Structures are given as structure tokens and as C-alpha cells.
Amino acid sequence: MSLGLRLIFRSHKLEVRDARRALPLLLEQSSASSSQLPGTAPGLMACRCVSASPPYSGRQSHGPAGRSLRQEEEGPGPAPGPRGALGAARGRAAPVLGEHKKLSASGESLASFRSKPAALRITVTLGQRESRTVPEPVSREEEKLIQQELNSLKATVSAPTTTLKMMKECMVRLIYCEMLGYDASFGYIHAIKLAQQGNLLEKRVGYLAVSLFLHESHELLLLLVNTVVKDLQSTNLVEACMALTVVSQIFPREMIPAVLPLIEDKLQHSKEIIRRKAVLALYKFHLIAPNQVQHIHIKFRKALCDRDVGVMAASLHIYLRMIKENSSGYKDLTGSFVTILKQVVGGKLPVDFNYHSVPAPWLQIQLLRILGLLGKDDQRTSELMYDVLDESLRRAELNHNVTYAILFECVHTVYSIYPKAELLEKAAKCIGKFVLSPKINLKYLGLKALTYVVQQDPSLALQHQITIIECLDHPDPMIKREVLGEYSYLLDKEKPEEVISRLYKLLRNQSVSSETKAWLIAAVTKLTARAQASDTVERLIEEFSASLDTCMRQHAFELKHLHENVAVMRSLLPVSKSCEDMVVDASLSFLDGYVAEGLSQGAAPYKPHHQRQEEKLSQEKVLNFEPYGLSFSSSGFTGRQSPAGISLGSDVSGNSAETGLKEANGLKLEGVKKLWGKEGYLPRKESAAGQEVEAPPGAPGISASENLDRVAARRTQAQALTQSKEEKEKQLLASSLFVGLGSESAISLLGKADTVSHKFRRKSKVKEAKSGEASSAHNLTCSSLDSLSNTACEDNAYLTTLQDGEDAKSKDFPLSSELSDSESLSELPLAEKLSDFSLSAPSLFADSDMEIFQPLSSAAASVTTDTTSASCFLEETTEDTCSGCVEVCSDETVSVSSYKLWKDDCLLMVWSVSSKSGSEVKGANLDIFPAQNFKISTEDFGKLWLSFANDVKQNIKISESQAALPSALKTLQQKLRLHVVDIQGDEGLLACRLLPSTSSLLHCRVHGDGLALWFRSSCPALLDYLSCQCQKAMEGS
Amino acid sequence: MIKFFLMVNKQGQTRLSKYYEHVDINRRTLLETEVIKSCLSRSSEQCSFIEYKDFKLIYRQYAALFIVVGVNDTENEMAIYEFIHNFVEVLDEYFSRVVSLLTEEW
Fold this sequence. Notes:
heterodimer, A: TATA-Binding Protein
């Protein structure tokens, strides 16, 4: 057992082996459904599996169903195949026994159990049990054994001498007992404790046990909240993962505010697995308490555009759900979904996502579902997706089950959106493949798909009519059920009487279940309306009126009475109407009068379900959660005076008042970093604001209350600022897509220099050749600003969208990005000495970040005056996205124009310098340094500071000579050209703008021989770089 | 939506269970028995999808082991059917590693 667990732990590292990346994805999809977090489900499941039985020998054997999994019957060692497996099963008892003995003996942790033979015997007995054919007496034996085991476990878990390691073992055993259906509730509390106290592995088992034992409304679950909060703040990736996993599996609804801000933070985490899990946790919250996560909808958009496919896929669950509830609010995302689907279908995802060489099938299905919901009854939106649906129908040629699953979903989508005749026909043709297939599962799927077709246009289904009739004779009642419900009225060619007699034959068939019979008789009833008098029907009525099955008898009587009164029957079951949907007044408008009357008589107005529940919750709480609400009542900090308020300052440790309050509350909330208020939560920046102001304890001159006022004022400002800015940013992101999946990792700035330069070299050769041909004479100077790549990729996406011309709404954005582009160019002074650049490198762009290429001077043979000469270069690179050519500046002799070219891993900036005078341009030199003129006031600094979500902190040791703040600031100013905004006491504020419209702020404080630097920027990639440069600068001096 | 995931052998013993919606422990045993019963009653000519109460069951058999997934009616049956296979393939990967590890330690 211990061995098994060790392995699971490995698998819990969760980046399942590459080839299997499709699974986590898929499992998330299932979580979709399941609302749990199957992201780790393989781990969970595997765990149970291992603990329950000896491991599979696992080598594949090709049985009729492809790979057949041999289960616990086999001992280790190679087996020849399924048959061999069965053979091995017979003589299995002995190896199993031996194996278990060895297992237990080898696991050190089991030492304590050695003296308990019961534990050992269980597995052995269970093993033997399988070989017996009479289960009854064994099950009693099993019960006895399990009870015995449970008793010994009960003693072990409550013994004070039990170590955590032993506890872990106990948990696994308890899980197994529960799985067999025996109550192990005495261990629940210990599972929680294990999650709280154990080391990584023990914690993992503890969390696993908790997620399997408890359910959402279990009161013990509240005891887990503290642990989860602690682990969420852990810097250990695995701990954070575990906490996120458990949150997305089970979490008490009323405690969501306690973790929500922490989880929101994780959306920006640099590790994709954390981001993915955070999205899934938020999905869970959305399922159980939609109004709590309403405010982060915009962040979901960011997740949708995440560069990691897994994160994007996870966000689809939330979108599917939200779109189901209200499709009109997300129409603007249609373009994005279409583009994503296009990329998936086109095989742009990493091959890891392939399942039997079909690219991310479950992801495709999810997207098709979303599109179906979006396009429903909406012609304009539907038009956007016709292309990709057509493509999907065409692509799914591969003869594999999973492509049929996609096809099915595709057909469903085609038939749910605004119809397009051509597509409908294609889809109907596709269904033919299903229905005619000898594979029974496909037949079923085909019939199910036919129901969609029939609802839209019965004539398209007519071609399959014969098959349908044949299916009536099929031995599988599931199939018949599909057939009967929908098609009986389709029968044009065959006479109803014939069908009825066929059905009648079936009805008399003893093997048919009574449920199916009910279906059959319902079908007969439908048909009778069309057939004139029929003997068969009368016979049938006679026969079944005396049926022992009450259900059947009722049906028969119904039929009888209807049959007697044909007129009523026709009006009840009109043939022509059977395809039309009934009109349902969902708004129940006919009740309006009644409601108004009730209201006027003083009745209470209707409250929606969630509102009622909230009120109920607030009235009858098990625990008093009041403090959380109070501490953030509108007056900001005043909540501190409330009896059990947990204060905003919980960030700052060592607050004695707070510790006292914590105790009063009864719940340990140590280290709870994030805060929440009555209105929901308080964004992270605010707590940071609080901290910022509080940071200089006892800062002279400013009284605490003034401090608070300032915070409050800033908060409102910051919020407004953040929102508008973030909103815009995210809308931009939303309209774009993950570009060049996985190929850019954006975190490392320096590591990319190599690939970049490689790319460049190749490109410049092309250029050379081209310029030779076209005799264009200009020196091209290229530089790749690698640190720009982040922004560039986003820009790239906007442009893609523009080119596709799909997302009407996104049209504004490329414009603005264009604008900022030209800005960036004009800000970068040209025509300086190249040599200067590489030597002095005064800027923050280190040499390795940027490479500059010039075409060979031999290429510059002749002269063109055409400023658009760059466009001929452009033509070669059609596969890449590029901006239009923009003239940067010119005078009477020379003109400089530029354009940008986005590659997978870098941004090429191409400047072409052309001579207007007819004389040859011999060369151009380029010097780049950041625009230094970023001067802001202290107040602006404060506002900006609050609006930036990304931050990095760093401590640098400084030498004696720098110990004073001014000298340190001076160093930074001189070496890095940072702008000193303000100096207050031992704190200094600096600002710089490395990229246009991307400011970076730096807050530094001197303490002893160290300098605490705190960077913030709107662009996360810049921060690490800045901090690195600052360190270099400080060390250098 | 997936409601539960079961691995049950022909003898009706649960080998793995995961419920995504809380089911009482007593009702679990009952449900598992009924589920495996309905799976065992199917022949190879019949499709792998069964209606059971409010769920749709999708099952696949590997030797003597049934993997059964209970879903609600919004689910694409074939997608789940293939999902089971994918799951099994992943198990296959995991477990072959277990075996090698076991032999190492012996």
C-alpha cells in the first residue's frame, strides 16, 4: 500500500506524462460536469485503485476491445493476453497472498500493523473471494473482517502514540472500507488533522481522504478552511496545488469569501497548473454560489486567452455554464471561440493533446456546445461559425469513435443554431454514416442525432427511414426507444398498419421489458391516430386491458378510449404538428394579473432562489460569521472595534489586538492574508494599500485616522482606475487568442535570445536574396526587443483578429494598438552610433535581449525611392502577422519607415531607410534607449501603484558608501535612468517607463545594510528584469 | 455532467468509486449493485449506454472489470465512452510503472 501511494504522489505532480496531457484536460471537462476537480482525478482514482488491489501488470494485450485492462486478478509478471489473464486468474490466490505479505513486510510504515493479522488478512481474503462463485457467505465473512479491521483502526487513530505516518496508512485503509460500504466516520476528523499537520505526502493523503469522506455541507469541513487558507499562501507549489484541488472538490459555501481573493491571485500565477486549478476552483464557486464570483467575470476572459491550453480549456467550463444561463451576455466572445476551435481543428495544439491522433477531442466538443448555445436563434452570431462547423464536419474523417463523438456534437450544433441549408444537408449526410454503421453504439448515436434533424426538417430524415424501421427489430431496447419516440410519424412510405403489427409483435415478445412496452404502446397510440380502423389495435387493446402490469393496462385503456373517439384522438395527436415545438410561456406572463393582485393585497414580493437562500443563511448560521462582514462595513477600518472583527491588517503579523480577536471568533485564521467585506471581497490592491500606509510604523506626523482616510480615498480612486484599465485590457485579450501555443514561455526574458537570433539570421538571408532580386537598396536594421515579446504577442493577437475580420467588436482595438506602436517608434531615437549602443548599454535592454541585424552591404546595390519597398519583403512573410508599413520620419534626403513582424517567439521590428536623393545609402546605425521622460508626481505614483497588479519584492545588500538612501537612489538614477519621484524619510519612490504606456514603479526603503525594493508594473515580465537590473546596478557600484 | 465514476468487477465488488455529487454511503452500495446488474444483463449486441433512473450509464468492459460512468442527459455518450478508454490508457501508463517499481524493491 505504501508503495502504491508513493506512486500516486508522483502522479500528483500532475504534469502527467506528456503523452497523456489529454487526460487532465478531459478530466477537467468531466469536472465540468461534475463540479469536482478531476484535474487531479487520475491521482485520486489511481489511489483508490492501488490501495484496493494489487497493481495491474499493465502491459498491453490486444483483446477484442483493443487494449484490455487486466485487473487485480493478475499477479505481476508478463501475461500472454486476455486468455492467459483468465487462466492466470484461476491460480491467482497464491501469488496475491505472497505479494501482499511481501508488500506489508517491506513497507516500514506497516511495521506497526504486523502484529495485527486482521489487516493483512483482509486483502488476502478479498483476493480469494473473487475466485468463488457463491458470493453470499463470503460477503458475511467480509463484513466480519472489515468490522474487525475498523475496530482496530478506531483504536489506532485515537491512540496518542500514533504517528502521522501511521495515520496516513490508516486513512488509506479507511478509504477502502468506505468504498466497500462500511461507515468509517470516526476517522473523518483525523483526516482533517492529517491534512493540517502532515508533511507533503501525509497532507496529500489527508486531503484525499477528506475529499472522499466529506460532502459540501458536512460541518467538519469548516475545520479544513484554515488549513486550506494556509496552504493557498504556501510558496510550495505542491501545497498550493493540493489546496486548490480540495477547494474545487469540496468547500463550504459560506466560507468562500475567506479564500476567494487568494484564489483570484492565483489566476496570475506563473505556473500554468496553478492557474488552471484556480480557474477550476472558481468554476466550483460559480456552481455553488454564482453571485459570489460575479465580479471576476472579466478575469475569466483573461483565463480564456491564457497562453496555456489547459487554463483556456478549464475556463471553457465556466463559459459553458454562464452562456447556458445567459447567452446574450457573451455574444462578443463568439469570434474567440470560433478562432480557438479553428486552431484546435487545424491541429495547432501541441501533440500532447491528441487522443488517437485526434486533436483535443473533448475540448472540441466543449467548444461546439458553447457555439451551439451562442448561435441559437441568432442569425448574426451563427454566421460567424458556419465556416468552422463546415470545417469540423469535413475534418472528422478518421474512423475512430472519438471523431464520431465530435461529429455528433457538430451535428447537434448545426441543428441548434440558425439554420443554413447547406450545412444542414451535410450534417444529415453525416448522420447516415452513423445510422448505417454496424456498430451498435454508433447506431444509437445516429438515431439520437436524427431526433435533432427531425425537429428541424423531417424531409432530411426521410432518406434514413428504412433503416429506422429496421431498427425497430433491433434486440436492444435502448435503440428501439430512440426509434419509437420520434419517428413513428415519419412513415410516409410504409403503411401505419404494417408498423403497428410489427410493434404488436414486439409487444408480445416476452423478453421486452415493461418499460419498453410502455414506449411501444405509446408509439402505437400515435400511429393509430393515422391509421383508420385497425384490427391489430383492437386486438392489442383487448389483450393488454387485462395485463397484470398496471402501467400497461393504463396505456391500453387510454388507447381504447381514444380509439373509440377518433376525432378527439386526432386533435390530441395531430400528425402535422408533431414536429412543432409547443409554445411555452416561460415568463408565465398569464400569471401577472394574479401576482399584481396578490401584491396589492400586501403579499410579499417574490424573491429569487439564491436571494432566499442567502437570507436563510444569514438568519440561521451555525457559526457566527458576522465579524467578516463587519470589519468591512462602509467606514473602512472602523470594523476593528467590532467585538470579533478580523481586521484588514491581518497581513501584518504580530498585531496583538488581532490575535485576541481571532480567539474570540473561535476559528483560527492565522495568516489569513486576504480580506473580504460585506459587498463580497476587497481587491488585493486595497490590502496592499493598507499595508503600504501602515508599513512605516509610527510614521511621524500622520495620525492613524488620517492614514485610514487616505486609504479610503485612494481605494475608490484606485478601483475606478483599475476597473477601466483592466476592463479594456481584458477585452483586448478576450478578442484575441492564445498565440503560438506553448511556443513562447514569456517568463524568461533572457533565455530567448538564442532562438531569436537564430530566427533573425535566417530572415536576413531571405532579405538579402530578395533585395538582390528586387534591387531595392536600403539597409535594413532590425532589432528584436525581446522584452517586448509579451506585449507583442498580445498585439499580434489583436491583429490576427483584425485580419480575420471576424470579431466586429474588436475592430477598435487594433487601431489603438497601432497607435501605440507608432508612438513607440517615434520615441526610439534613430540614427545614433551602433557601437555606442552595445558598449555603453545604459538602458535596461541588456545586449543579450536584442539583436540587431543589418543586411549585407553588398545587397545595397541600387536605389529605390519608394518608401514602401519594405512591402516586398513583407510579401515573403505572409505566414507571419505583420503591421502595415508606417513612415516614421523623413527629410529631403532620407526617409525612415518601419513595420513590425510578429513571429512565434519574437517581435521583429524592421526599419527601412531609403534615400530620396538617389545617392546610395551606405549604412544606418541604430541606438536604442528607453524614453526617460517619465516624470510623475507623488500622487500619481500612488494611484498608479495601486492600479498595478503585478509586483516583485527584492532585498539587496548595499555597501557602506550607499547606505544613505539618496546615494542609492542616485545610483539607480544614473545607471538605469530611473526617475526619482519622491523621497520620504527612509523611503524612496522611483518610476520609469520601459515601454510606451507601460510604466514600472519602484518603492525602496533602506534598513540597516539592506535595501528593500518593491517593484510594480502592469506588465509582469518587466518586473523580474527590472529587479535583476537594479541588483546589477547596485552591486556594480 | 458526470455524476459518478465506478469500477466494478463481475462479482459486483466495487474497485473504485468516485461520486461527484454526494450520495449517502448506504445508498451507494445499493446503487453500485444495481448498476453492475444492469451492465451484466447487456449482451454485446446491445449498445453501451443504459438509462438508469435519472442517469444515463455509459459502460465499458475490460476483461472482468466494468468501468461505468453515470452522467446526466446533457452529456455526449460517445465522448464519455472514449473518455473511459482514455482513462484506462492512462491507468495503463501509471500501473506499468508500479510494476517495475515493485520488482525493483523485491
